[in-house]
């Protein structure tokens, strides 16, 4: 694989391992972008966002897909830091311990109960890929027990990130990702 762009629908980790073995930073001609795989180099980029282009902001249609120009995934600079600091207060060790007893234990048990007694279970699809979205839904006050709602949320999330994987170039993925996720509910802009 010559470019990360070729990794769509493939396991990208061999690509990353190969690049890391060759060094921490590489030009990817297929993506027309630098690929940074070294820890120290990635940390530098994350801590110096004013020096580097935002990964989503330049994608054609990003504001449509991510909820407008003030969508949380598009924020930069002080706006990003303000939201980040606001969210951090909801993830202190004491708060996370409270979440564990308030809802995480229940939702994990419910997901495990759903597969109990079965001889074949796809843990990735039926547990690992649903528990994080259940937790986020509970944090947002949504009913994580509502399977129809949660299926819609997961589809919506999947369409957004599927579009991101195309680097904003796939019109069909854009149309799907920018469509209203819940008919009758309008996204704020």
TrEMBL record:
<dbReference type="GO" id="GO:0016705">
    <property type="term" value="F:oxidoreductase activity, acting on paired donors, with incorporation or reduction of molecular oxygen"/>
</dbReference>
<dbReference type="InterPro" id="IPR036396">
    <property type="entry name" value="Cyt_P450_sf"/>
</dbReference>
<protein>
    <recommendedName>
        <fullName>Cytochrome P450</fullName>
    </recommendedName>
</protein>
<comment type="similarity">
    <text>Belongs to the cytochrome P450 family.</text>
</comment>
<dbReference type="GO" id="GO:0020037">
    <property type="term" value="F:heme binding"/>
</dbReference>
<dbReference type="GO" id="GO:0005506">
    <property type="term" value="F:iron ion binding"/>
</dbReference>
<dbReference type="GO" id="GO:0004497">
    <property type="term" value="F:monooxygenase activity"/>
</dbReference>
């Amino acid at each position: 694989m010559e470019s990360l762009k070729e990794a769509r629908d493939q396991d990208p980790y061999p690509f990353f391992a190969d690049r890391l073995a060759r060094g921490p930073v590489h030009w990817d001609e297929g993506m027309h972008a630098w690929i940074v795989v070294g820890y120290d180099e990635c940390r530098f980029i994350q801590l110096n966002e004013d020096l580097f282009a935002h990964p989503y902001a330049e994608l054609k249609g990003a504001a449509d897909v991510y909820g407008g120009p003030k969508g949380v995934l598009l924020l930069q600079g002080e706006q990003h830091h303000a939201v980040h600091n606001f969210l951090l207060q909801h993830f202190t060790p004491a708060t996370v311990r409270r979440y564990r007893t308030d809802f995480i234990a229940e939702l994990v048990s419910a997901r495990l109960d759903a597969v109990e007694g079965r001889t074949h279970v796809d843990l990735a699809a039926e547990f690992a890929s649903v528990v994080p979205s259940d937790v986020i839904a509970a944090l947002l006050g949504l009913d994580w027990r509502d399977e129809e709602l949660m299926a819609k949320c997961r589809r919506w999330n999947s369409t957004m990130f599927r579009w991101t994987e195309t680097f904003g170039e796939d019109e069909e993925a854009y149309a799907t990702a920018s469509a209203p996720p819940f008919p009758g509910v309008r996204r704020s802009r």
